[in-house]
Amino acid sequence: MKIIYTPEGCEPREWDFEPKRLLNVEAELIEDVTGWTFDEFGANFLKGSTKARHAALWVMLKRETPTLKYAQVQFSLGELDVEFTAQERLLFRAALEAKAASEGLDEKEQKALDGLIELEAADAAPKEPETLSGELIEEERER
Question: pTM, whole model, 2 decimals?
Answer without folding.
Answer: 0.71
